[in-house]
Write a structure and sequence with these properties.
Layout lengths: L2 H12 L4 E5 L4 E5 L1 H6 L12 H7 L10 H11 L3 E4 L16 E9 L5 E10 L1 H23 L3 E6 L4 E4 L2 H6 L10 H6 L6 H13 L4 E9 L5 E12 L5 E10 L1 H23 L3 E6 L4 E4 L1 H7 L18 H17 L3 E8 L5 E12 L5 E10 L1 H23 L3 E6 L4 E5 L1 H7 L9 H4 L2 H4 L2 H11 L3 E11 L6 E14 L5 E10 L7 H17 L3 E5 L5 E4 L1 H7 L9 H5 L2 H17 L3 E8 L5 E12 L5 E10 L1 H23 L3 E5 L5 E4 L2 H6 L3 H7 L10 H14 L3 E9 L4 E13 L5 E10 L1 H52 L7 H34 L3 E4 H11 L1 H6 L3 E5 L5 E4 L1 H17 L8 E9 L2 E8 L6 H4 L20 H11 L3 E7 L3 E7 L8
Parallel strand pairs: 32-34
Antiparallel strand pairs: 1-2, 1-5, 3-4, 4-5, 6-7, 6-10, 8-9, 9-10, 11-12, 11-15, 13-14, 14-15, 16-17, 16-20, 18-19, 19-20, 21-22, 21-25, 23-24, 24-25, 26-27, 26-30, 28-29, 29-30, 31-33, 34-35, 35-37, 36-37
Helix pairs in contact: 25-26, 26-31, 27-29, 29-31
GO molecular function, one term: phosphorelay sensor kinase activity
Organism: Hymenobacter mucosus
Pfam families: HATPase_c (PF02518), PAS_3 (PF08447), PAS_4 (PF08448)
Amino acid sequence: MSAEQVDFQLLFDSLPSPHLVLQPEGLTLVAYNDSMRVLLGGVGPEVLGQPITQVLDAGPAAFLHHPEWEQAVQEVVEQRKVRVLETQPALPGTDNGLAGRFWQLTLRPVAAPDGSLRYVLCRCLDVTEQRRAEQQERISHEGFTLLARATHDAIWDYDMRTGRIWRNELFTTLFGYPVTPENSTIDFWRSCLHPDDQPALENYLQILLTGTDTAATGEYRMRRADGSWAEVVDRFYIMRDAQGQPYRMLGAMQDVTQTHRTKRDLRQSLARFQVLANFIPQLVWAVNQTGQATYFNQRWQEYTGIDFTTPPPNFTWTHLLHPDDQVGATQGWQQALATGNDYEAEFRIRDQHGQYRWFLAQACPVRGTDGHIEQWFCTCTNIDDQKRTQLVLEEKDRQLQYIMGEVPAYIATLLGPEHVIGFANSNFRKLLGKQFQLGQSARTAYSALARQGLLELLDQVYATGQRVAGHERPVQVLTPINGKRRIYYFDFVCQPLFNEAGTVHGILVFAVDITDRALANRRAEAMDVKMRLMTDSLPQITVVTAPNGSVEYLSRQWFDYTGQTLADRNRCWQLALTAEDQRALRALLAHAATTGQVHTQELRLRRHDGEYRWHLGRLVPALDETGSVQRWYGSITDIHEQRLLSDELRRSEEQFRFLAESVPAIVWTARPDGQLDYLNSRWSLATGVPVEDTLREGWLHLLRPEQVAYTQQLFEQSMSTGQVLDMENSLRHVPTGLYRWYLHRAQPLRDASGAIVRWFGTTTDIDDYKRIQQHLEEKNAELIRTNQDLDSFVYTASHDLKQPINNMAGIFEELTRTAYFRDPDAVKLVAMFDKCLHQIYATIHDLSELVQVQKMRRGLTAELVNLAQLTQEVLLSIEEPLNSARAIVTTDFTAVPVVEFVRPNLQSVLYNLISNALKYAAPKRRLRIHLSTRLEEGHPVLLVQDNGLGIDLERFGSQMFQLFRRFHSHVEGSGLGLYLVNRIVESHGGHIVVESKVNEGTTFQVHLLPLGAHG
């Protein structure tokens, strides 16, 4: 060997990468360097001259024998061009340090001086680190892409070196622009900026890029694809190189147009509220949760003369109250602040002239979503005229009591079936003596009444509700003065008193002593005068009419009020009543004549000054012995102020209902016994049940069955004891069948004696909180089960299965490659052994898939899955075996088109069930598979039905979902498919029901959780 050859060999051996030289003819090995010798397993010169494929296959570098090796060498020889091949990594488990390495083969032609092909030079370059770096970069890019798709922002990545911008799909959703190369440049972004925002924004970006900041936020307007402008908040991060120069920007865009519009609308709403508050006649004010005033409308300044924007030092609203009203008003207000109950009080407020006028103050709390009071909304309504009228009426009532006590007749009211004395005028008490006391029953107060049949008469009136009148009824009375018995004669009326329900609750006894009338007409005339004086002294108008309604008598008050004269008596009704009330009066008289009962009617009477005022007319019939009406005795009472107060009360009730409808929760009230009497409209929105139906039928049937008894017990206990109600339960939304959790709280309103008058309550939706709580509990339980399965699997697969099977496979492969079998059955035995190895590998693979299912369940969340779309994807993946089996697959997902599930897991369920149907198809009939859904008690059910071989459920039903359990031996399988399906369904809170008949087919019913149950 010459010196040049020695130098070349030294240089060739010093190359760090393995090299070898091939002869073009026959591709025999001519030379190799030291690195290649090591790679070939330390071969010697004896391999020179041998075909390279033989050398590679015989040593540890067999992995370099690329499938395209011969074709690549042929192209190098024929086309004189370089070819590069990427090899698969060496098999793991070898002990030569090559396991898991990637190699790049470069085949380069070497020409002779005459231009002919002399050699083929092959370089083997270890590119493992490069490949791993590429894989890591691809994984990082895929992770970033998945994160960008999962977020609610429009994510962008601007490469400042290329000027290109990458965006996620949400950019198209928010702004309407497709993600195309034309739209992925910085110039396109600039073209979408609002002209008024672009200069300032670009100047801001220039300052950031030339500075050192790495993170910033910008706000600007951006034109959407439809031409509208979106208000955008853009947060971005600047990436800089080692010299601090920016080379890349990452950012997230949010469309805040609606948020800003809402803020502007809120400011406009507040302005409208202030205009409205200044427009209404009430004094409007607001305070915070501590009772400190935060707002007074303009009416306060107009009434008091005080500028509430700059109130006097140490000023409070109680300074404006009358001294006699300050203590009560302040105590009530402090109690409302402490309890959170509505506030209502009447007090006098001083105006700017120093005069006090009566006001009705009302305040109600405004609560936040957490139920805590955020502020109070208060009004003061001027009721001075009504209040003064009320005081006048109270004074007149006292006068009436006095007059009734002094009327020259015997007047008493007897209450209840025992005829307890509720009122008796002085004449009654004088007649019967001291033993006749208020609060006693008539029998106890004067037992002599029973012996004369008077108690039976009272019992009759109370029992029948019919008025009884007597004429010259003799009554024997013990004279209190001398103790002697004396007979008096009375004309009397026992008039039943009815309550609001229309039942008798007492009797009015009106008796007139007519003892002397039989003796002398003069005494009778005197008595008549007294009666007229009595009626004239009453505040009511007294009237007596014939049965047909013609007037026989009118008291003086009628003429004083109407200004009419006696000449107008025959047409008094036409002059005093409106046409509408005249028709009502005629109808009343016609009806009363047939019933002979007491009747009342509200009428409008024209006063002498032309004003119509509301009056209550009461007609009492005087009957003869046959029960026919002889005449009518009536009274007409001015109730104008009471009518106005009633109207005001009705308006107050309407205001309460308006406020209740404004509260963002279900507001309800109940009677002391717990019977609901009011629900706001949010009840119907939450349950889908009309308010009227709930008030009539109750609400317990909307609860989950297991919550009914406990809820009813807790509710009734609170209603009976008066304790504050605080409970949680689930209510069903009837149209969808879904249940949501609610928090119910109620406070009792009590009167001065402490008795409960009414319950006020709210029902607040807490379903999101409860679902989060339940979701955490499910996750913990699921994690425990999954970890147990995973530990068992890892132990079995790593120590007992995987390594021995790999060794067995390697030994078997080497044996079949090198050994020669003379036995004619050897080929069959080898095939059977190879089949067993594949079955074992399949089992290990299925076990790995089981672990993957557990990992996916922990790592992925449930989503809405379109069953039709997912089924098509599964069918497409097994299209070839379906076509081979000539299977007919039909679907019907009309009942439940969408379910909530982890999509890859549901795909695995469908794949396994359809694959099972293919495996176990009946050989003598065409396979039919039908997939459908139905809804059972609010839960979706997925059905997979086939007409295959079927399963003997009596024998194998209890083993259906056991690990490695198979029911047919003529088809290959591992017995893991149904076990995997069952684990997936159970881990999602569902269960599977199987119906099957041998030689007819099988139906798998997959029961799933309803929408929203996964949290």
